[in-house]
Amino acid sequence: MKIQHLLSYVRRAVQDYNMIEEGDRIAIGISAGKDSLALLVALRHLQYFYPKKFELEAITISLGFDNFDLSAVKAFCEKLGVRYTVYETQIAQIVFDERKESNPCSLCSKMRKGALNDIAKELGCNKIALGHNKDDINETLLMSLFYEGRIHTMSPVTYLDRSEVTLIRPLVYVPERDIKYFAKKEGLPVVKSPCPADGVTRRETTKQLIYSLEKEIPQLSNRLFGAIERSEIDGWKSRE
Ligand SMILES: Nc1ncnc2c1ncn2[C@@H]1O[C@H](COP(=O)(O)OP(=O)(O)OP(=O)(O)O)[C@@H](O)[C@H]1O
Fold this sequence. Notes:
This protein is an alpha/beta fold.
């Protein structure tokens, strides 16, 4: 996938869901994975030609793992001309050592989101951009269905009452495999997650399930996503 292709997906999502307003200050949550780094590149390019002017900040919530070297990400942000803030936390120690959580992802995710909201607000941002892609949206639908018995997934735009910050997900139309290809081709400075729970989660199981079903049922991912767009799920609308 070329940058133009990525930008066409992002621009369409931003316009369909009115994700960006004139004067927005947008904090991009950088996990240092392929999605958030691709999002950083896309929004930086969008800034050049999008009719509404907006500003960007890049933020990583460091979870406190030892082997998490962000120096290449720092250099990358500098090259792009986006200010980068790394916020150090003890989330990993709290989740794994102190609380010995049986479901560490849930507590970690809550604490990480809280920290990201706080830092974004401190830096004067009114929006937070997250790197969830089309496959993440589909997987979340199936996870809600299979594990919680309800029909739900993340929305393209979510306003958080308590922190008065709006979450936007400009990659919702981009398939994960395109992002993987883009990250490789562009040599994005992806840092492997040091989390021991990475890759052994419910999300990973669901991802593999969709992957194997798609071999039997071509277009499965597109149909799932189309069903979300045509559904009554909060925040989605049909493009037809
Ligand atoms: N430690 C973090 N600091 C800042 N933002 C984060 C962090 N972890 C996750 N995010 C944000 O939340 C989004 C979803 O998180 P998740 O852990 O599901 O990432 P992912 O799907 O693996 O994406 P990525 O490839 O960017 O890691 C990320 O794309 C990123 O925007």
